[in-house]
Amino acid sequence: MSFQQNFRHYSSKSKSEIDLTLFPVERIRNFSIIAHIDHGKSTLADRLLELTGTISKGGHEAQMLDRLQVERERGITVKAQTATLVYNYQGNDYLLNLIDTPGHVDFSFEVSRSLAACQGVILLVDANQGVQAQTVANFFLAFSQNLAIVPVMNKIDLKNADPESVAIQMKNVFEFEPKNILRISAKTGLNVDAVLQSIVERIPPPKHCNINKPFRALLFDSWYDRYRGVIAVIAVIDGIIRNGDAISAKHTGKSYEIKDLGILQPNEVSLSCLQAGQVGYVVCNMRSSNEAKVGDTLFKKGLTNVEEVASFRQSKPMVFAGVYPMDQSETAALRSALDKLTLNDSSVTVAKESSAALGQGWRLGFLGLLHMEVFNQRLEQEYGAEVIVTVPSVPYKSELLGEKNIKLYGARDIIVNNPAQFPDISIIEQFFEPMVLGTIITPDVYFGPIMSLALDRRGVQIDSKNIDNSRIMMQFRFPLNEIAVDFYDALKSLSSGYASFDYEEDGFQESDIVKLNLMLNGEIVEELCTVVHVSKARKYGKEICLRLAETIPRQMFQVAIQAVIGGKVVARENVAALRKDVTAKCYGGDISRKMKLLKRQAEGKKRMKSIANIEIPRETFIKVLKR
């Protein structure tokens, strides 16, 4: 009896009846689908699940692997998902482990950790939009890990699709021969069966796997269940793991007992064991994000000198922001929510922080602004946590002056990711700002506006080349601060949505930067302060003051909004006071009567201004930096 038949009747059989020899390593394939955002990854995953009988056709929601509410609302994949398929090819059953991945640049860490568990990828390209920036980035990510790459062109059924032109692009950029590119429509299911055949034929089985060795596995994903704790997704490299086995984690050194294990189809299906080459989940009483470290190696308890399975590059936060509870009484609940959500998204870094205005909070590091917005949306939707988010910033490096200051800070070079902790300019020899190497792919008709945008953001062009008759690929070196907040939105707006953008870190560069303080009625609001290049300080200050004036509600007194550098005010806006006509009852008589009422009103407003708090809406902290 095949594994597929065993699986269909699994509920009526004991777990011990599953014969592991039915699936030797040679008939296992682990693969991911990688592509630019909105090129049809999740739709293709749906068709693969349907064709293999894993789910019934029409009996599920579209984009089934996009389970999060935020994914369905935004129409993007945020969280990598895993599904095990059984495919019969030439009379043999093959076990295919599919890992769906995000396409936006902010979630590239999700892609990299998924690829660590794969031997091959499907590189998906839209036949209408063609090769995009994240397509290029994902290709080189897979290529650098020596993964087999199956090129697939999707959406060939669209009226505006141009498969021949896109095939030329894929040949020029990736050196794929057009005859080797599969042409499909994931929406209609056209030629999708050829993708399954190519997975078996072109993607190799797991390498260096040995079922006879002691258990060893890679932990590449996890999420939190309120009843069972951490559920870890693993790729088994060696041996067999069974319920009740004792395992250890190399990173923490802690030991656990396996309480449950199985495969994802895409829902959890318990099995008695997992073998070398398979991808599945384990439940073993891990309780915190510190224990379930992505990239960790799990192994049979008692083994010594265990070799790590993989050492892929950890994510580096590019954007930092403070997160505070709306009410300080909710601090404990927010701490618990952060612990659980960071377990699900380990690319987020967390450090405690306190503020005089907002109280106890945390400084979180994200891969980009969309990543930050999605994380905060998930906090609200999945954990009911209402938070205040401060102005996002990027990490800067400062070189200190004098031995006294070096001893005080413990190093000559210090990294500052919070503008409120920006050191005084008198003790700094020079500042450095983070740089990125950005890649833009666009139709050539938008070359001029995009070049102007890049130069306005202090970009320096590195390279430019045509990838076909109508599309151009450009590379720029940007300061991270210039592209972290709204560059992607501006690029899409200028190009009517056709241009795409991807970036990678490129070290630090010496720069003339200053701290821009925001003051409300003479009081500095540290949570609204930011760091800018000196050439843009005045313009930036004016824009922020205008946005604050539009966002802050009118009070019973005038609110003065000032942007200050050092002791110099570079911009100012006023929020006019709400007025009551106290002279309305005076319909005649001496003018001194009206003047007395107006004087009393002015004294009351002055007294109120000296003791009142200015209400700042939570939306202000994100809107204030939107150009």
Automatic annotation (TrEMBL):
Name the major location: mitochondrion
Q: Which GO terms describe its biological process?
A: positive regulation of translation; translation
> Has the keyword Ribosomal protein been applied to this entry?
no
Reactions it catalyzes: GTP + H2O = GDP + phosphate + H(+)
Query: Which residues does the UniProt record annotate as the domain Tr-type G?
Result: 26-207
Keyword annotations for this protein, in alphabetical order, are: GTP-binding, Hydrolase, Membrane, Mitochondrion, Mitochondrion inner membrane, Nucleotide-binding, Protein biosynthesis
List the protein's name.
Translation factor GUF1 homolog, mitochondrial
Species: Daphnia pulex (Water flea)
